């Protein structure tokens, strides 16, 4: 019963309440160690290192945590240096991407071990700092077999999973055009609870594949590449909120004008107003870069806000529901020294 002299809230009141929400995000997959964030493109220097500007734009856009992807041993080490530079804000993963699987079979050098020694180096790095919150990026990629053949990928995916079992870290996973082999490698370890779970990032598979991953207890990472086609949008619509995570996967996977998601954004003015101006700021070509400007076709963490808007529109729910679900899921899986909305503190 309503107190005396009170009345039910009007639609205007409800709208006003919704707009008071300040979106917050965790970008669970950002490749900040890529040379593009140092102004280098395809081996050529185009502008000065602007990584600090990228981080500041992320903060201005509501990004409260970044998880930097480790794609091989060297990049994992560089990611950890960034975590030391931005303590409590940047976290990292450690692992070897399937497209780099030949690093395990390449002749060793003074700085690049191979085989078992590379596995040991990854394990040692993963336990060297609490800023390492996941083991990966590991998995299978049959779309780009010119980098590493399927047999090599499978062998070293399995070997890295053996390491992950000993680390008790969640997994940061990659699966592209390899769903059956990917699931065959993972399912027994997850069902036997030898693996602490994980997220299949940059998900672009079918709805059936997504549902199989969810059934295993894995989370689904959504970025611009997950939103290219109408079929992709239908898959995202079916991702359970309690399995959803958000990411940019920059400097790649931006939302492009040709993508189905771009059309969705044109119909999302109210939500776009909620995320502020930074994610929508016009970018300049790298040759015309000036300090403080985003670079055209170089994706960055601030764009995670746009991904959240598309997900909310596709699902027909509020931006708050999407952001808070993704926040909760990310904090619970990775730790990240944060407090959930229910007051529970989750530490890595």
From TrEMBL:
Entry keyword annotation includes Membrane: no
GO molecular function, one term: 3'-5'-DNA exonuclease activity
Lineage: Eukaryota, Fungi, Dikarya, Ascomycota, Pezizomycotina
One annotated Gene Ontology cellular component of this protein: cytosol
Protein name per UniProt: Mg-dependent DNase
Organism of derivation: Ascodesmis nigricans
Cross-referenced Pfam families: TatD_DNase
Family: Belongs to the metallo-dependent hydrolases superfamily. TatD-type hydrolase family.
Keyword Metal-binding attributed: yes
CDD domains: TatD_DNAse
Keyword annotations of the record: Hydrolase, Metal-binding, Nuclease
């Amino acid at each position: 019963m309503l107190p005396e002299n009170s009345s039910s809230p009007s639609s205007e009141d409800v709208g006003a309440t919704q707009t008071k929400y300040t979106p917050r995000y965790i970008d669970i997959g950002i490749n900040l160690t890529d040379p593009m964030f140092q102004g280098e493109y395809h081996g050529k220097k185009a502008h000065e290192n602007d990584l600090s500007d990228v981080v500041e734009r992320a903060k201005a856009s509501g990004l409260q945590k970044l998880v930097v992807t480790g794609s091989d041993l060297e990049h994992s080490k560089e990611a950890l240096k960034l975590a030391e530079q931005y303590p409590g804000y940047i976290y990292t993963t450690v692992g070897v991407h399937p497209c780099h699987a030949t690093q395990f079979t390449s002749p060793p050098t003074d700085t690049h071990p191979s085989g078992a020694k590379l596995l040991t180096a990854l394990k040692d790095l993963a336990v060297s700092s609490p800023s390492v919150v996941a083991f990966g990026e590991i998995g299978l990629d049959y779309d780009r077999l010119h980098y590493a053949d399927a047999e090599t990928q499978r062998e070293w995916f399995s070997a890295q999973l053996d390491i992950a079992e000993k680390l008790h870290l969640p997994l940061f996973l990659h699966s592209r055009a390899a769903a059956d082999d990917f699931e065959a490698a993972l399912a027994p370890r997850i069902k036997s609870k030898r693996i602490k779970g994980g997220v299949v990032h940059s998900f672009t598979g079918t709805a059936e594949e997504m549902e199989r991953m969810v059934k295993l207890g894995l989370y689904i990472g959504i970025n611009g590449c997950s939103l290219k086609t109408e079929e992709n949008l239908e898959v995202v619509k079916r991702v359970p909120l309690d399995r959803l995570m958000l990411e940019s996967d920059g400097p790649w996977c931006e939302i492009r004008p040709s993508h189905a998601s771009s059309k969705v954004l044109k119909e999302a003015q109210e939500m776009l107003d909620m995320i502020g101006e930074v994610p929508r700021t016009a970018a300049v070509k790298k040759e015309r870069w000036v300090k403080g400007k985003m670079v055209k076709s170089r994706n960055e963490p601030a764009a995670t806000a746009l991904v959240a808007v598309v997900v909310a529109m596709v699902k027909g729910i509020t931006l708050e529901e999407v952001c808070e679900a993704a926040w909760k899921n990310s904090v619970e899986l990775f730790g990240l020294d944060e407090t959930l909305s229910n007051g529970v503190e989750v530490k890595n």
